Amino acid sequence: MVTCKQFLEELNDFLDEALDGMSRAELEQHLGKCPNCQVLVDTTKKTVRVFKGLEPCPIPPEVEARLLAAIGNQSRAARQR
């Protein structure tokens, strides 16, 4: 029996139809019984449709610089661990 947590962990692959038949069937069985996960799937699908319909928006240079610095800091911290 698939739990909501397991369903959430597989959500991307489920939506991308990247699961084998057995795994997909198990998730669909859970989805048929779980209204919370049904809402999650519906909301995620709608969100993806909305964002796919948007035009790309350039990132302001100062935001890009801060983002790259933050990624660099995280990367260095991870290597030091």
Summarize the SSE layout with pairings.
Elements: H1 4-9, H2 11-15, H3 21-33, H4 35-52, H5 61-80
Tell me the β content.
under 5%
Terminal Cα span: 37 Å
Query: How many structural domains in the coordinates?
Result: 1
Largest sheet: none
Give the radius of gyration: 18 Å
Give me the oligomer status: single chain
Order of helices and strands: HHHHH
Judged by helices, strands and strand pairing, the structural class is mainly alpha
Q: What is the number of E strands? A: 0
Mean pLDDT over the full residue set = 94
Kindly describe this structure:
This protein is mostly helical and 81 residues long. It has one domain. It has five helices and no strands. The radius of gyration is 18 Å and the shape is extended. The chain starts with a helix and ends with a helix.
